[in-house]
Specification:
The relative contact order is 0.22. The N and C termini lie far apart (74 Å). The strands form two sheets. The chain has a four-stranded antiparallel β-sheet with strand order 1-3-6-5. It is an alpha+beta fold and 224 residues long. The longest helix has 14 residues.
């Protein structure tokens, strides 16, 4: 009887989806370069070379030539593929990151003291965020710092959801948001704390038990 019960249970399992999910968890927010504390001299290339290398390596999967083979999905709505045996991947070209793509400026702004950081959400199978999610960053100081977002307004298009799992959605790439910190001379030689959050949707970003759930805080110091 035990063996029969186990056999019946195994028949109900799907290798591509976790069996027990009482709710779809909320995603964490991840930053690239892969560092929560960054400090560099903008006039000394070896001091920021590690950050530039990390960004360039990370963006290889987003090269326009590689993304051309992916689907040109209609924006603004979920890309549902529940019945498709093989899941297509919506195209995200690194050129969409404009001045933070590493194409027009191979130093990602670090040489001019206006560094770029990239943000992405963790992959969550089945996640379909409501509303219109976007990334918003703030600096914890008296005078606000100007920032540029790419794509425009830091938007995360819903066409990149849902994600179906690595076994059947093998070439999936998360949508990115680039933030360019437009630092001035007054901001140099100071450690700045920057907090970025996912806003505009039902995704959690204020759980005090998990500082990375829907948000991330990093520190940056630029020296002349």
């Amino acid at each position: 009887m035990f063996a029969l019960t186990m056999w019946v249970m195994l028949l109900t399992l799907d290798d591509n989806v976790p069996k027990y999910r009482d709710r779809v968890p909320y995603p964490g927010l991840v930053i690239r370069p892969h560092a929560l504390d960054m400090a560099f001299n903008k006039s000394d290339p070896p001091k920021y070379a590690q950050y530039v290398k990390n960004l360039e390596s990370f963006l290889q999967r987003y090269n326009d030539t590689k993304q051309e083979s992916n689907e040109d999905c209609p924006p603004g709505d979920y890309f549902m593929q529940d019945d498709a045996p093989e899941k297509k991947v919506c195209r995200f070209k690194r050129s969409a990151l404009s001045f933070c793509s590493g194409l027009s400026d191979t130093n990602f702004g670090y040489s001019e003291g206006k560094p770029c950081v990239l943000l992405k959400m963790n992959r969550i199978i089945g996640l379909k965020p409501r509303g219109d999610p976007y990334i918003n960053c703030t600096v914890k100081k008296d005078n606000p710092i100007q920032m540029q977002y790419f794509p425009s307004e830091g938007r995360i298009d819903k066409m990149y959801f849902p994600y179906y799992g690595k076994n059947i959605h093998e070439d999936y790439v998360q949508p990115l948001v680039a933030v360019k910190l437009l630092l001035t001379k007054e901001d140099y030689n100071k450690e700045l704390a920057v907090e970025c959050r996912v806003e505009g949707s039902d995704l959690c970003n204020n759980d005090e038990r998990d500082k990375f759930l829907g948000r991330v805080t990093f520190r940056i110091k630029v020296v002349e």
